[in-house]
Specification:
The complex is a heterodimer of chains A (355) and B (76). Chain A is mostly helical and 355 residues long. Chain A is 70% helix and 0% strand. Classes of the chains: A mainly alpha (355), B mainly alpha (76).
Chain lengths: 355, 76
């Protein structure tokens, strides 16, 4: 039976939606008016890591990160590394689920129990995992244009309300705070793309990983820059809002008849978050199946989803705790995003040269 | 609130049992490993969810992770 693979284009689409993910809502950082500067610094910081991720998968075309680590480090150490990535994928997935339920709770359905949106999200994502990566590839071809149109409309309509004086003083933020913001953006969302390398076993072997990463990162950076500028419409009060982009877009109106445009941002957020969650679930299910040698990772979709959903419920008592966690998250994620990929790359390079 | 939460969870877990676990058990090919992972996760998360629904305070795994990160990095 021929294995269904996704094309380069589909991989780029998935990666774009993965990066936009829940970040589409938080394009506001401690750097406030200098968020755009923090995004650029984060891009500079991330470029070498992006090359590391792309190099790892380009050394073994058609193989996923999991297959690569087993090949490089052997079964025992390879599975130990896979286990760490499974933990990371589960923790990120549960964070995304919690994000989703908080968003629904805060902006739309405050009386509805948080478990209800979670159950729907769980069901849809499990369905997607059971359908396979190729279905996600086909689905993003429909979803990404919707996201782009939504974001473009909000950006264009915000031009009228933009007040560029909100961006002043340029580079007025303290250096420490600016670098901390850049590090936050580096870690969340840029370096989270390390999880996407686990899907490269389902990408056509002829695909160029550098092309996939560079295209996606450039497009997302442009979007983050534009969103950073757009969010300047609400000026220095940006930090007051849980969902900065949603708040920024809510002040936009066209005459008196075209209002409540924030729905578009909400739609983009939900679609992006769904794709990101699916990638995390794919990563976790494929990882567990590699560890215990199960041929069909799809059988593990529900257990992985149940762990994520339960963690999403018990991780934080409220939305404030969730935001506090973001300060810790960037340090927590560092070993998975930087240290382990560097070790894997070093091992892979040595192994390739010795062959 | 409590009852509503437990009811929603019960429906979800019942649906999983009927539409996924039972068909998986009926499969003749090697599915023991899958079930070996599936069943403990299924039961464990079910118990946690019911306890949460009954307002029992479940310790968050985020707290020890946070403490470890703070301890390693010495950040405040």
């Amino acid at each position: 039976m021929q294995k269904n693979l996704i094309s380069t284009k589909q991989a780029i689409y998935i990666l774009i939606m993965f990066i936009l993910g829940n970040s589409v809502m938080y394009t506001g950082s401690k750097a406030k008016q200098d968020t755009w500067l923090a995004v650029l610094i984060a891009l500079v910081l991330f470029t070498p890591m992006m090359m590391v991720y792309a190099r790892i998968v380009s050394l073994y075309p058609g193989k996923s990160l999991y297959a690569i680590v087993i090949d490089v480090f052997g079964k025992f150490f390879g599975k130990a590394i896979i286990f760490l990535y499974v933990l990371y994928a589960i923790s990120l997935g549960s964070l995304l689920m919690r994000n989703f339920s908080e968003f629904i709770h805060v902006v739309a359905m405050s009386e509805t129990p948080k478990i209800v949106p979670l159950v729907f999200l769980f069901t849809l994502s499990v369905w997607m995992i059971k359908s396979g990566v190729e279905t996600l590839g086909r689905w993003v071809r429909v979803a990404l244009p919707v996201v782009f149109v939504s974001l473009l409309v909000t950006l264009l309509l915000s031009i009228k309300s933009l007040d560029f004086s909100n961006l002043k003083p340029v580079a007025g933020t303290e250096f420490n705070i600016l670098m901390e913001s850049a590090f936050t953006i580096f870690s969340f969302p840029f370096a989270e793309t390390v999880l996407f390398t686990t899907l490269f076993g389902s990408v056509k072997a002829k695909s160029n990983p550098y092309k996939i990463y560079i295209y996606s990162i450039v497009i997302c950076t442009l979007f983050f820059l534009a969103a950073g500028l757009r969010n300047a419409v609400i000026g220095s009060s940006l930090g007051m809002f849980y969902f900065a982009s949603y708040a920024a877009v809510s002040v936009i109106s066209l005459g008196e008849f075209f209002t409540r445009i924030e729905v578009l941002i909400g739609l983009a957020f939900l679609l992006d978050l769904f794709v990101k969650l699916c990638v995390c679930m794919f990563a976790a299910s494929m990882g567990i199946s590699k560890i215990v040698n199960i041929k069909n990772y799809k059988e593990l979709a529900i257990p992985v989803g149940l762990i994520m959903m339960t963690l999403a419920i018990i991780l934080f008592a409220n939305i404030l705790e969730m935001y506090d966690w973001l300060d810790i998250y960037k340090y927590f994620a560092l070993p998975f995003q930087v240290i382990l990929p560097l070790i894997i790359l070093a091992g892979a390079e040595i192994k390739i040269r010795l062959k | 609130m409590k009852l509503r939460y437990i009811l929603i969870c019960s429906f979800l877990y019942l649906a999983i049992l009927i539409f996924d676990i039972i068909p998986l058990m009926k499969k003749k090919r090697d599915n023991k490993k899958s079930l070996l992972i599936y069943m403990p996760v299924f039961l464990f998360t079910l118990v946690i969810n019911i306890l949460y629904g009954l307002s029992v305070k479940i310790p968050s795994p985020a707290e020890p992770v946070k403490d470890i990160v703070i301890w390693i990095l010495g950040i405040k």
